[in-house]
Amino acid sequence: MVREFEYRGETFRVNAHGAPGHEEVFIMHLIDGEEFGEISIDRMTEENDTSAPLEAIIIMLCDRLIIEREIQVAKPEGAFAWREGKVLFKVHNGVQDHA
């Protein structure tokens, strides 16, 4: 899955693939469509809560990226929300579906 979302007033893109709880998850911070910072986790090999939903892992990674990159977020209390119409690719059972 490649999809854009908003969190704390900022725009991010997630690229996640693998079985639920065992994904590789990459987060990119976007500013005006350009990538400014990236963070990732390999849930197959790195310590994590494999029962946590993907959205929880995304939020955890965003929080880490915000601290590491000292990002001054636009809305410190802004919630996680998928950007509608921003599904770039979906992959299910190994077959790619162009959204």
Write the layout of secondary structure elements.
Layout: E1 2-7, E2 10-17, E3 24-31, E4 34-42, H1 54-68, E5 81-92, E6 95-98
Antiparallel strand pairs: 1-2, 1-5, 2-3, 3-4, 5-6
Which structural traits does this protein have?
six-stranded antiparallel β-sheet, 15% helix, alpha+beta, 1 helix, 99 residues
Provide structural commentary:
Helices cover 15% and strands 47% of the residues. The chain has 99 residues and is an alpha+beta fold. It has one domain (2-89). It has a six-stranded antiparallel β-sheet, covered by helices on one side. A hairpin with a 2-residue loop joins strand 1 (2-7) and strand 2 (10-17).
Q: What's this model, at a glance?
A:
The protein is an alpha+beta fold.
Question: Roughly what is the average pLDDT, rounded to an integer?
Answer: 89
Number of folding domains?
1
* Percentage of β-strand residues: over 45%
Distance linking N and C termini: 10 Å
Number of strands: 6
**How do the helices and strands follow one another from N- to C-terminus?**
EEEEHEE
